[in-house]
From TrEMBL:
Lineage: Eukaryota, Metazoa, Chordata, Craniata, Vertebrata
Co-factor binding comment: Binds 2 Zn(2+) ions per subunit.
InterPro entries: Aminoacylase-1_M20A (IPR052083), ArgE/DapE_CS (IPR001261), Bact_exopeptidase_dim_dom (IPR036264), N-acyl_aa_amidohydrolase (IPR010159), Peptidase_M20 (IPR002933), Peptidase_M20_dimer (IPR011650)
Organism of provenance: Anolis carolinensis (Green anole)
Protein name: N-acyl-aliphatic-L-amino acid amidohydrolase
GO molecular function, one term: metal ion binding
Amino acid sequence: MLPEKDPRKQGEKDPKEDPSVTLFREYLRIKTVQPEPDYDTAVKFLERIASELDLPCQKVEVCPGRVITILTWKGTKPQLRSILLNSHTDVVPVFEEFWHHDPFAAFKDSEGNIFARGAQDMKCVSIQYIEAIRRLKAEGRRFPRTIHMSFVPDEEIGGYKGMQMFVKRPEFATLNVGFALDEGLANPTDTFTVFYGEKCPWWIKVKVEGNPGHGSRFIENTAAEKMHRVITSFLEFREREKQRLKSEKHLTLGDVTSLNLTMLNGGISFNVVPSEMSAAFDIRIPPTVDLKAFEEQVTAWCRAAGEGVTYEFHQKYTDQSMTSTEESDPWWKAFSTTCRNMNMKLKCEIFPAATDSRYIRAVSTSISLFAYFLNYLPCRCTPYFSSCFPEASLSEKAHSFLCIAGRSPGDWLLPHEPHSCAAA
């Protein structure tokens, strides 16, 4: 940890620092950390930004304490479908004892690296959106399409009280979205990864019942024996998918089904054979997999383990919508052509986890036949830091260059129109 007297810990402004970097660090210092995020301060921060940019700010409370904040730059032809730049305001918890710097001080080292929770996921993207629009407005630019920036809560805990509720409301329909961007992943190479779909998360809890008894005896048909068969079936499948990913070089993590045993419960005493046990599995299924056939396989695994084995879903997402990346699609063509003109290398993949984008994709047909959604993080040559684990928490960071040079993609992408009446 930094000494308490270090001015960088106290959040003092550096007069030599680029204002966009200062803004980024200010945003990082707002503790929107789950499970008790300070959303009120975040909303006030965004309201101030809206005032600075002379943009109207709409607040939609989808449930008590959960506000969607929308900053809107009206286009010269507002009847056209709009552009939505989405980001979430919350961040995952931290294990402070494993950090070298205060995770909410936004410490910047001598090389310009900024260490903070949310530096990659995803406050850097929010600031890039804001700074791109700030620069374009300062240049006196105007565009036919209306551009909305949405800042949503609770994405890190599933978005159930955030985007999932928002897309069902009339305020979302009024946005008239035609093209949208959301979070992606940093890429350590010189390539930008674009995600055109994502896996379906299934959280399954398997319960087994068996004969109880004293721990000194060989009890027949125990819950533990059945649970062993269940776990073996699930983990053998996991190993097959893991080896497939390793052996088939063209595959990415988004192309295979990931499966992990995440919770295991049972028993009341060392000397008592339990009558029941349970295991929880986190499964992420690519949109190319037959979900009906996969559930039939889960059912078969449980049936083969013996009588008294059941399962229940704690999450079962089944929408497998994917965004077109065909050059014939006017939205994709506008996006990809602009990136090529900027010498930006793109790699299209399925997102390996889940984001709020799944909720927009699920309702896209009710918005417009041509509604378009991509996950994209304008962050290359930057190692990706998973924010879920203590060892990864040591280094969640972003370079200050992202807030300065990172504005350029927005500067170029926003002005470019899809050349098709289908995108109107």
